[in-house]
Every structure is written in C-alpha cells, then in structure tokens.
Amino acid sequence: MGLFSRGKSKDRPDTDAVDLPDDLEQDELGDGDVDGDGAPAATSRPLDRSEVEDDSDYLNLGAIWLRGQQGMELRLEVNEQEQQITGVTAVIGESAVQLQAFAAPRTEGVWIDIRNEIAASIVDAGGTAEVLTGEFGEELLTRMPQAGPDGRTVFMPARFVGVDGPRWFLRAVVSGRAAIEPAAADAVHDVIRTTVIDRGEEAMPPRELLPLRLPDADGAAQAGEPDDAAEQGGPDLKPFERGPEITEVR
Questions:
Q1: Which of 84, 180, 215, 227 is deepest in the core (most CB within 10 A)?
Q2: What pTM value is reported for the model?
Q3: Quick count: other Cβ atoms within 10 Å of Cβ 178?
Q4: Contact at 8 Å (CB) between 18 and 180?
C-alpha cells in the first residue's frame, strides 16, 4: 500500500501565509548550524534523479520527488490561467518550505544571480535582505513587508535557499518558525536534503520552471482503504490543496 494519500487541489487558492505565534518576534533571525571552526556543518544535499536507484520511498511529482515525514502536509500551488502546477509546499508544524525547480545551464549555476535579483526586489519593496552562510551554502535571509491585522506594516522573515544541480536549480523558501529558529529548521531542512530533482532530457531555456504533476496511482494510497503508514506512526500527508502561497519575486 502506498505511503502517500492522493487528493485534488482546491478551485480557489488559500493565500494565507504561515502565521508566526504572538510570542515569536518577527524581526529575529537565527544563523545556520556551524562546526567548531565556524564552517558550515557537513550535510547531505538534494539529489539528481541519476543518483537514486530505489525510488520506492518517494512521492513522484514530476520534476520534484519528496519523502514523507511525520506530521507533514503537502500543498500544491497552481497557476489557474495556465492550469499549471508551479510549486509544492511542505508544511510541518509552524514552519513551511516552498520548493520550485528550474532548468539551468549545463556549465554554470544560476543561484548567485537569482539571489541578487531576489534581494534587490525585496529591498525595493521596503524590506531587508542579507546573505549568510547556512547549511546549504550561501542563502538569503529576508524580512518582507506585509500588512498586519491592524493595518500596520509588519516584516515577516523568510529564508531563500538555492541549490545548483546538473542542468537544474532548486529554490526553497523557508517561512514560519524555521525561518528564524535553528531548532525548528531541521525538519524543514530534511525536506530539502532528501528532495530529488528529475530534470528530464528535454531542452529548456535557463530558469524555465520544470514541470510538476499530481502523483500516479502507484504512489498514492488506494481511496477508501486505511493508511497503514499513519496507523504505524508514519507521515500524515493530508490531501493536496492550494497554499500557503509565497509571493514570487524574481
């Protein structure tokens, strides 16, 4: 029986951001884990499809493959005009990470240029952006202005993580507690660490979004049957739905 449940996206988007609890300061940012000499701690990284022999533990969403975690909920973002899935968001507790995969040149990465463009867009919008070294290399720690419940502007933290792979680029946007609390970030980082990118062989221009899709029946539990994984304490993956969407700045 499959590990993952299957569902359909909603007709209307749920565009609410992942709210931070009242006891969490929105302008407090945490640094990534480092080892004794100040260098980033050694870790695994997202994999290319060619590096994975056994894909039975993965949910195949096309260009992005994911592994489940206890209590993780997956949501798909959909471009309604083009009826295209544009990204997948994993929500774990009070944290979330949005994943998008893009085509990239064969000979060079694109993260440096994209990172600079994101930073410029956020600063132009009145926010702040700072480049720091985290678990996956240089990442962008930002505070993005948003309207608060009382109408005043608040600055919501988010971390932009980029990984250059062979002919592909993975962008991860971390929000909620994991954006500012290292202790809360590990579960979200594990989603990034275990992600697999299936670039495909089709020629595509750099920065074009790699196609995503709903999982096949082979990767989903049969409708109406009990989920053995859930009964045994495995990942609780709720049906796919829209949101929380993160405004894309490129």
A1: 180
A2: 0.71
A3: 27
A4: no
